[in-house]
Amino acid sequence: MRSRPLLLVAAAATATAVLGALLGSRPALVVGSLVALLVLAGDPALRDVPRPTRLLLWAGIACVGGVVLVTAWNWADAGAPWTAEDFRGAWKAPLAFAVLEASACVCLGVAVAHAPRERLQQQGPALLAVVGLLALGALAWVDAWTAWNSRPHFDDDLAVFVVAGVRTTGPSLDVFGALTMGTMLAGAALTVLACARLSR
What we know:
Radius of gyration: 19 Å
Order of helices and strands: HHHHHHHH
Helix content: over 70%
Number of helices: 8
Largest sheet: none
Mean pLDDT: 83
Number of strands: 0
Structural class: mainly alpha
Distance between the termini: 13 Å
Strand content: under 5%
Shape: globular
């Protein structure tokens, strides 16, 4: 059974991560996300889960953590000008996001599928697991689409000059980034905890 302090830590860490994504703060994003994921990985509900399922859940959580680290690494310093290399490599980060999010979906989906068949008939936990997987899958699809549309083209040399002056010159609120981070962390938590309940 989860203790109230543990729930408060997880909630505070998730809120910190979302706020970090909103404000563009690397420390808040990374620390908040990793603390939330570590609390999720060590949740008491996972202790009674079969070892293969638990390893799959941990692998899915690790993939979500990878998305957080790539996000923080990929953030450019405000005011830094675009270069031709930056422009041509714009597809790499969304591709990494898509691969990691899809990997998380696969790991968590297989873990849910390993639950006893009679347990999968429980509508509440099963529905939560599906919602969580759909959230992660939707993020993976969006990032794959972004990577495809950011791939290099033959006329990039001209476009570099157009994009060079567009990069933000000061801090701004990244509402989409905050929603994405919140959706990803919530989707992972829903799936992991629902799977833990279905597998016991």
